């Protein structure tokens, strides 16, 4: 909706009227598409003030610490829903009724196995490869296996690819882990829930199948829900950008996995645990907090701060509660949790963190839960990727379901002006 208008005056040119668009919630946006007629562009590295698209999937109010998926608060979804229901909601826009849910879960279960030949693909990787490196390669390779659903202009193909990706990510993630351990890969078990099946494929072996604790299954499911989507973050924007060129869905998700890997984004959960290891003891916290504040030191407190949340990350609140439940179920008294809590307390009292509104984010506690469940640190970001796949594919679907253009930003060029080529013998 465009009720208001902004006027832009560029010296020496006629004023330009720019419509102001209003969403259902959140800040208005100035529609700068008409600016190209003036010969100028906007300049916004890091997209600090740019809305890259219109979306109806997820809403965040970073000042109030609000996160809604299709209008439903994340706290309610984490408490009352389950991951596959949340997937349905993100993909289709509404919560499923009982019959729709049963059908959806059954379709996902139909797709949990991967092509048998995909197994041999793993052998090309070193066993000590980082699991995210293997994930990028194997998920990208899915496009070489599922040719029958690659027509991005066919809604049915898009739907099948979405189902395949959601269904196969736990299988692939567990295969990555088993490969790194040198253990046989486990086939999925469709009699288990989505999260329990993942834990089964991770921790059981062909010689020993232990029942999966429903409490741990529930905790895993909640971790999946809390990571399912997060609006136009770096990896989701990457998926949209890759998708805008017409790339196939498996290639787009592989691009999302690559973007997620960085420590400023999904790689932070792994980095938090490594940081806690490095801090080692409560007596060292002050030293590390000082390092984080030192502008000459690149060190940052991992698991703190967020581009959008300038208040408590609502996912971190639920994550902390889940963390307490898991640790008490397992009877674990984790010194790292005590260290994390002390670090949080000290950092939150510190004027540097207060002034900059730096609060713990989702990654601060997730690592401690994952560690308690028995998941190795190097697999943390893989779990994030598994859970975020539904968000990526929902945004990809949303983009392809209405008219879209290839994403092609412009630049402020500050390099050389045109100059003549200099032959090798004439160069200094
Ligand atoms: N430790 C110390 N200082 C920090 C931190 C931190 N974790 N985060 C931000 N700051 C400072 C930053 O140096 C800057 O200070 P100044 O204004 O004096 O220059 C100020 O706070 C604003 O930060 P910014 O880097 O401009 O903010 P951003 O929106 O560009 O970056 C962020 C957001 C998440 C990349 C950043 O806070 C960060 O690197 N945090 C640690 C990594 C992390 O936990 N990432 C997970 C994010 S949540 C999960 C996900 O979405 O993937």
UniProtKB/TrEMBL annotation:
Alphabetical list of Pfam families matching this protein: Citrate_synt (PF00285)
Per the record, the similarity remark reads:
Belongs to the citrate synthase family.
Coiled-coil region(s): none
The entry's protein name is: Citrate synthase
Listed under catalytic activity are:
oxaloacetate + acetyl-CoA + H2O = citrate + CoA + H(+)
- Species source reads Pseudomonas schmalbachii
Q: Which SUPFAM superfamilies match?
A: Citrate synthase (SSF48256)
Domain of life where this protein originates: Bacteria
Q: Does the keyword Acyltransferase apply?
A: yes
Q: Keywords, A to Z? A: Acyltransferase, Transferase, Tricarboxylic acid cycle
On whether Transferase is a keyword of this UniProt record, the answer is yes
Picking any one GO molecular function of the record gives: citrate synthase activity
What does the record give as its pathway? Carbohydrate metabolism; tricarboxylic acid cycle; isocitrate from oxaloacetate: step 1/2
């Amino acid at each position: 909706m465009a009720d208001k208008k902004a006027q832009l005056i560029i010296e020496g040119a006629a004023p330009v009227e720019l419509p102001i668009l209003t969403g259902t919630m959140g800040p208005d946006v100035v529609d700068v598409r008409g600016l190209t007629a003036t010969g100028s562009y906007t300049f916004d590295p890091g997209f600090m003030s740019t809305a890259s698209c219109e979306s109806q999937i997820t809403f965040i109010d970073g000042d109030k610490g609000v996160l809604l998926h299709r209008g439903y608060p994340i706290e309610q979804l984490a408490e009352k829903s389950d991951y596959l229901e949340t997937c349905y909601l993100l993909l289709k826009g509404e919560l499923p009724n009982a019959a729709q849910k049963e059908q959806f879960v059954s379709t996902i279960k139909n797709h949990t196995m991967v092509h048998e030949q995909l197994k041999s693909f793993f052998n090309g990787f070193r066993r000590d490869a980082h699991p995210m490196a293997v994930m990028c390669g194997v998920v990208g390779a899915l496009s070489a296996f599922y040719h029958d659903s690659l027509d991005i202009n066919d809604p049915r193909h898009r739907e099948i690819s979405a189902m395949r990706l959601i269904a196969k990510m736990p299988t692939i993630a567990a295969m990555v882990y088993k490969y790194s351990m040198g253990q046989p890969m486990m086939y999925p078990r469709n009699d288990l829930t989505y999260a329990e099946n993942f834990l089964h494929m991770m921790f059981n072996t062909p010689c020993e199948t232990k029942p999966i604790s429903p409490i741990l299954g529930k905790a895993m499911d909640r971790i999946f829900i809390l990571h399912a989507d997060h609006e136009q973050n770096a990896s989701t924007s990457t998926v949209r950008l890759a998708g805008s060129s017409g790339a196939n869905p498996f290639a787009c998700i592989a691009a999302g996995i690559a973007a997620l890997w960085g420590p400023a984004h999904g790689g932070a959960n792994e980095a938090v645990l490594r940081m806690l290891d490095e801090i080692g003891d409560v007596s060292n916290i002050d030293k590390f907090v000082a390092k984080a504040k030192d502008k000459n030191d690149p060190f940052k407190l991992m698991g703190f701060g967020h581009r959008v949340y300038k208040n408590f990350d609502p996912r971190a609140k639920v994550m902390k509660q889940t963390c307490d439940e898991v640790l008490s179920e397992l009877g674990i008294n984790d010194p790292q949790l005590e260290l994390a809590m002390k670090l949080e307390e000290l950092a939150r009292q510190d004027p540097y963190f207060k002034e900059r509104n730096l609060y713990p984010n989702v990654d601060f506690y997730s690592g401690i839960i994952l560690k308690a469940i028995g998941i190795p640190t190097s697999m943390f970001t893989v779990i994030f990727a598994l859970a975020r796949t539904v968000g990526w594919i929902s945004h990809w679907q949303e983009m392809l379901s209405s008219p879209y253009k290839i994403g092609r930003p412009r630049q402020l060029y500050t390099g050389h002006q045109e100059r003549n080529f200099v032959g090798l013998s004439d160069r200094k």
